[in-house]
Each structure stands twice: as structure tokens, then as C-alpha cells.
Amino acid sequence: MHGILLKGLKEFVVETYDRSTWDEIRDEAPVERKVYLPIETYDDGELTALVEAAATVTGESTDHLLDAYGRSVAGRLLSTYDNVLDDDWTMVDLLLNANERVYGTLRQQNPKMNPPQLDCRQVDANKVLVGYQSPRKLCSVAKGVIRGVGERYGQPVDVTEGQCMHDGADYCEFVVTF
Q: pTM of this prediction?
């Protein structure tokens, strides 16, 4: 798990709730206390444990938290990977190129990284199909990131899920409508 995601989770909790809520989550989660560095990799189970603890502490569902977290972290991801994104890209361009540009760069920079696979294709001017596959099955985060990127681009989007790995599918498929 990329450290930027774990650091982003802490920032999301502190911004959405407060610092004491993050401290409660850390106490609840069976994870060693540490400072998450954006450029490091961490065990995937740490995010899962922290989100499950967050659900217990806040009373929110894990899906709701993961989606809201994805929306929150989208801006940080865009800023971090700004150097591999074209300035003139639209939201559609970003979706169509994210797997190659962002995740491809991650894979080259750190072979330990195992980012999700995205397969995006434009159906028409207002619709993109996004195939998401990852052993982490963080599809709620992916949907939230798409919504958050839309907000950053000033482009409201509707994200519906046609199929999901949690229901036995090989990959998740989102219909993103602009």
C-alpha cells in the first residue's frame, strides 16, 4: 500500500472529524503506531484495519468511509502526480490515461507497488466505462476518487457500479456519466 494513501486516511479523518477521533481509531486498530510517509510502502492490511476501526469509532459503514476518503484523497493524488498529467486534459482524458500515466509511473518507480489495474473506455461524449481490478477490492475508494477528481475538475459525475468483485465478479465495472 502506497504511503500517500495511509497518510491521506489520517488527513481525511482529522479534517472530517478531528484529531481525537484519529487517536481513537489508532487505539482501536490492531496496527503499530507510526508516521506514514508518502513515498514508502506499507502492508495492505493496515488500511483495512484502520478503516474497520474508523467504522467502529464513527458509527459509519466502511463503504461510506472509503467512498468519502476516496473523494478526499483525490486532490492529493492529483497534486502528487501532476508531473505525469497533461495540463490540457479533461476529466475524460484523465480517466482514459490514468492506468498508463499514473499507475505505470508508480510501477516503474517502485516495483513493490501493486496499484490497481484500470481499463477505461469512452462510450460516448458523456460516459466512460471504468474496469477496476485489485486484490485489495477497494472499489469504494476508486468510486470516491472518481467523484473527487470530478469535483477538482469542476465536472459533476455520477458513478454507478454495474458489477463488483465483492459480489463474485472478476473486476468491478463503473459507469461514469458526466
A: 0.91
